[in-house]
Amino acid sequence: MPEPFDRHQLQPLLDRIAAAAPRHFGEGEVADYIPALAEVAPDQFGIAVCDINGKVWRAGAADTAFSIQSISKVLNLVIAMQRLDEPDIWTRVGREPSGHAFNSMAQLEEEKGVPRNPFINAGAVLVCELLVSRIMSIHWMMREQARRLAGNPAINFDDRVARSEMDHKARNAALAYLMKAYGNLHSEVNDVLDVYFHGCALAMSCSDVARAFAFLANGGVNPQDGQAVVTPQQTRQLNALLLTCGLYDAAGDFAWRVGLPGKSGVGGGIVAIVPGQMSICVWSPRLDSYGNSVAGLRALESLVEGLGVAPLG
Ligand code: DON
């Protein structure tokens, strides 16, 4: 078992991190390729930690809802892993880091329509096709899962964001059609994208996201209600995927600087897992060139250093 972190140290540390965050305001840009995201006030910061007993610590704008964007790709994969047989998933999408931007077309063409992993856009769209082709009420299920995991029945889709993404769908549609051309995607592209964009448009706060991901720190069991979300083996597999693929072509740098399984979204959120101890969510909308939150990354570095949590040794 990893050394437990010092609970008394945590709140003052989070307060210090939130107080230091404005130093990075002004660095990076908000995502503007989705117009509804470009309207978010850029200089905001929140952080929340949830331990394996479900206790939450927070600082800054930890209860402000933001668009979780690619963080939803993990929640969608969880539904697929709960409901589908392993070969149904892993013959259609790989488990290797891509080393390419999250929305790159080049590798998908080279590799004949089989996405490298479920966290790049092509892979996440493919997972949504697995879900939409098998589950009638998938939108409802995605929202219910987020509500149940976070223990917050008020969580909802931001329909403006979902519509804005559909209005500017060209690149994701191109990825989907390429997979269709290679025979790896069969459903109507717009039906698949509608599911994918709704997942991305879930509006959750740092406190919600930290709570919703605590099962990945807790052997697959949601500390909110004691329910098993995935098996211990699936938990290890998901954390392995997050460590190697969660931050796209910056996954290596994230492992170097933070050393935790993590997943970012272009809404400015990043979730990270300290296995056996806690889940963490940071949020700040300005992004670096890889699509990862600038102030969020800095905050995670400071938190890991301040707490001395180091699952990689
Ligand atoms: O499809 C897109 O491009 C966005 N809805 C999600 C991309 C994303 O969040 C990448 N993460 N950093």
TrEMBL record:
Gene3D superfamilies linked to this entry: DD-peptidase/beta-lactamase superfamily
Any GO MF annotation of the entry: glutaminase activity
Residues the record lists as binding substrate: 70, 121, 165, 172, 196, 248, 266
Catalysis performed (reactions): L-glutamine + H2O = L-glutamate + NH4(+)
Annotated keywords: Acetylation, Hydrolase
InterPro entries: Beta-lactam/transpept-like, Glutaminase
EC numbers for this chain: 3.5.1.2
Subunit and interaction comment: Homotetramer.
Stated family: Belongs to the glutaminase family.
NCBIfam families according to UniProt: Gln_ase, PRK00971.1-1, PRK00971.1-2
Protein name, entry field: Glutaminase
Higher taxonomy: Bacteria, Pseudomonadati, Pseudomonadota, Gammaproteobacteria, Pseudomonadales
GN (gene name): glsB
